[in-house]
Amino acid sequence: MTDFPPGFLWGASTAPHQIEGNNLNSDFWANEGRVPGMERSGDACDSYHRYREDMQLLADAGLNTYRFGIEWARIEPEPGLISRAELAHYRRMIDTAYELGITPFVTLHHFTNPRWFAEQGGWTAPGAIDRFRSYVEAATGILDGVEWVATMNEPNMLAMMTGMAVFMQQAQENGEGWQSPTVDTDGPRPALPAPSPEIGRIFVEAHHAVRDIVRERTGAKVGWTVANRAFETRPGGEEKRRELEYIWEDLYLEGSRGDDFVGVQSYSAQWVNADGIEPYPAHPDNTLVGTAYRPDALGIAVRHTAEVTGGVPIVVTENGIATHDDTRRIAYTGEALRHLGLAMADGIDVRGYLHWSLLDNYEWGHWEPTFGLIEVDRETFVRTPKPSLGWLGSVARENAQALTASR
Prior knowledge:
- The chain is α/β, with parallel strands linked by helices and 407 residues long.
- The chain has helices spanning 16-19, 27-31, 47-61, 72-75, 84-99, 115-119, 128-139, 155-173, 197-218, 238-254, 297-309, 326-345, 387-398; strands at residues 2-3, 9-13, 65-69, 103-107, 148-153, 221-228, 231-233, 262-266, 270-273, 276-277, 314-319, 350-356, 374-376, 383-385, 400-401.
- It has one domain: TIM Barrel (Alpha-Beta Barrel), CATH 3.20.20.
- Helix 8 packs across helix 9 (197-218), helix 11 runs parallel beside helix 12 (326-345) and helix 12 runs parallel beside helix 13 (387-398).
């Protein structure tokens, strides 16, 4: 057995656009239904209204932390127009978490932007960082008592998605369908563009611009989360791996030096050869999003993150598997936690593990991939906890995980 330290965060994560429903003022909503092959989020999981039920299920299972997001497009539906009602809504979510004995872990930006922000040029437009700073100044007014705040979710993926907007416009003009940034099973398609370092540096600057605002106004621990690809190297691929690691991860991990924590988000691993990243080979064990079944990726990710950041404390803010087989979810998570425990035994400072995701939700243009610990009926919104929720809750209650491999 490995014993996790006292105060370890055990929980699950969500993103507002994926679960709330009817995020009408966001740039992502504006594209839904207009791009061939892209499903609509619609009511999503109706968590905007059912957040208490979701938190209650999490708490009843034995988990102690819920990572959820504040939706900028709701807070600021028009430039400079701040919705006090929406701020109050998210404050009620924070208060509900504390009422149920849950630590709220708040993300200020999770991929989506206000529609007006995108129409004005988005993150590459002049004044974009000032706009983000103004939003964060408004949002911090409701964060009193919150201990953990992530400024942005996966800025490396966001940089790729920002560049992908042009890529997808060209694809639409050529009559091609939607290409989800998180789903690799869309059929034959060109490779997604790597995140541009120039765009990536905009996000590093944006993160640094609001980091001290959050600290000064809330006293929270502040960081951001990074999508970890857990690269492994074929013979002769060492130089290419270093090049790709900087573009995909290290630029952003270096940007977290000086943070109170960095979020590791790990799902699978990929091989790099002298020519670049190898596509995931077809295999019966591949997940519903086309990635390889690699629970050991979490150990690779936290070790690499600790090395690049110089030991910034880590919270695993996302780790999970897209599968319809919940026994496989339990096996994957158990093995991932085993590798996490081994990394911690080697001295890596990890403060928590938040599973992705609490709910089966909208996977950025698709409904088929299911990551949740809880099933959601999309017609009635009835929540049905899966065995994996109870299993993870039992691990949390014991604050320990067996180091024998789960099969």
